[in-house]
Amino acid sequence: MILPKKFVVASITLLASFSAANAIAQEYVVPAPPVLNGDYLQVDQRQQQQSPPVNTGVVGQLSDQKTSSGSEFQKANNTQVGAGKPELTEEEKFQKKQAELRKQAASAHKPLFFDNQFSYLCDEAWQGYLLGDGLKKRCLPGGGWYDIAGQYRSRYHAEQNMRGLGLTGVDDNFVLHRTRIYTDLHFTSNIRVFAEMLDAESNNENFGPRPIEVNRVEMQNLFVDARLIARGDNTVVARVGRQELLFGAQRAVSPLDWANTRRTFEGVRLSASQKNRKFDAFWVNPMRVDNNSFDSPNRDQEFMGTYLSSTVRKNQTIDAYFLRFLNGSGANNFQFNTVGLRWQGSKDDFLWDFEGAYQFGNNTDGSDHVAGMATFGVGRKLQGCWKPVIWAYYDWASGDDATGAGNGFHHNFPLAHKYNGFMDLYGRRNLEDINLLLTMQPTEKLKLLFWYHYFFLETQTDTPYSVVMTPFNGANLPGSPELGHEIDFVGTYKIDARQQFLLGYSHFFAGDYYGTTVGVPYNGDANFFYCQWSINF
């Protein structure tokens, strides 16, 4: 049931942010107003020759998409296709251009909605209409432009012996609904305001929902961007307010899109980027979900760090990061510092994904904290019309000698669902996971995924941990390190450029740990079936 008071306050907050940012924008010089074509933002060809193209993405990153009245398109049409090759006809060139624009349109929505790109609408060669296009690249009075967009997602869960955290022996069936709506306001090339509302609910469950499943009418993002430096490819942007964070492969920092609520923070972030490098520094507080009133930042927890990502080498990404997580919540206080390195890339048909981190600080009992994690993954693209790709991974995360004390590796704020089994039985602590991944694409719209995991404890002197880093049956010493095996299957069908349907099934074969350890709630197998439909607009 939607809370009317929260809805009204959310609406007022959106309007207030619009007015405040508009007032701030008056302090900046507004560029020459764009030429209007049906109220859509386009840049006059004469202005293009004297100034950079319109900024259509995150402030501080200039779009590569030209918006002239056909000059770039005409230039491409007059180019020879290569020695010895017949020149494309005008119709073939036009079809090729349309295919490129359709590809841009299909990938316009990003994992973080404030990174969404709708620049295809500024290309006069674009012919077509997708849901929500009429609310993109609209002009603001006095200059600037705005987007209005969002997403609706619905997912059905059938959980057998796994409702709660871990292998619990509890069954439940329910439906999750999530709606996201945002406004992206660009008042000048230097000032931007982004406001996103999220509403997450759960229906028909027999047991209370998990914390990540319900959060009614909340501000997911509400921040101001100010571009401080813009010299060619060099930009520096400051961001202040409520904001989602996503870095690298999301093993350490993620908005957790699988969750119905999504994770967000409040604080400051400074981003500096060049052509092939980006550096981020941030200091934030995690948001505390409160279904009775508006969410507030958890001042007892502080999360800060730096993240450097480089793509200087072709088809390779190297990330280096330092993260500091301070938790002062009652008796569960700790200080964990994480230094990490990631190397991901491909050469010909071979692929690799390596990431490791060293962690130090103070545990809850005041003792020194020393922990680590490592991921080793190698893959290969196989021959075949279904485009098969196979991966072999080994994941390791340290535990401790004290059973259930929580002194092993802490995974910070990750997307755990993506890596250690889709049933989310374990977090990245006191865990080893040998897994094989196979992906295929039988058609342009259908993708298939098969994933096998073999889980066991890193040390038998410590217990398994949940995805929220709580000990599972922490009072009892494990009788065996073998946790079990999980198989995951997911089929994803792309209905169109804005809609997607997903069908998934997972089965967990309980290992000797559950049959030999005192105090476990259940020692049988578990099943997880789910289906999801989402539509972007």
Secondary structure layout:
Blueprint: H1 4-25, E1 35-37, E2 40-42, H2 45-48, H3 71-77, H4 90-106, E3 138-139, E4 145-160, E5 172-186, E6 191-203, E7 215-231, E8 234-243, E9 265-273, E10 277-288, E11 296-297, E12 301-310, E13 316-327, E14 334-347, E15 350-362, E16 368-381, E17 389-397, E18 431-440, E19 446-456, E20 482-494, E21 499-510, H5 512-516, E22 526-536
Antiparallel strand pairs: 1-2, 3-4, 4-5, 4-22, 5-6, 6-7, 7-8, 8-9, 9-10, 10-11, 10-12, 12-13, 13-14, 14-15, 15-16, 16-17, 17-18, 18-19, 19-20, 20-21, 21-22
Note the main attributes of this structure.
globular, single chain, 18-stranded antiparallel β-barrel, 10% helix, two-stranded antiparallel ribbon
* Helical fraction: 10-25%
| Poorly predicted ranges | 1-82
Radius of gyration from the CA trace? Answer: 25 Å
Number of helices: 5
Q: Based on Cα principal axes, name the global outline.
A: globular
Determine the structural class based on helices, strands and strand pairing.
mainly beta
Rounded average pLDDT: 87
What is the tally of beta strands? 22
Element-by-element helix/strand order: HEEHHHEEEEEEEEEEEEEEEEEEEHE
State the separation between the terminal residues, measured CA to CA.
Answer: 24 Å
Please report which band the strand proportion falls in: under 5%, 5-15%, 15-25%, 25-35%, 35-45% or over 45%. Answer: 35-45%
Largest sheet report: 18 strands, antiparallel, barrel
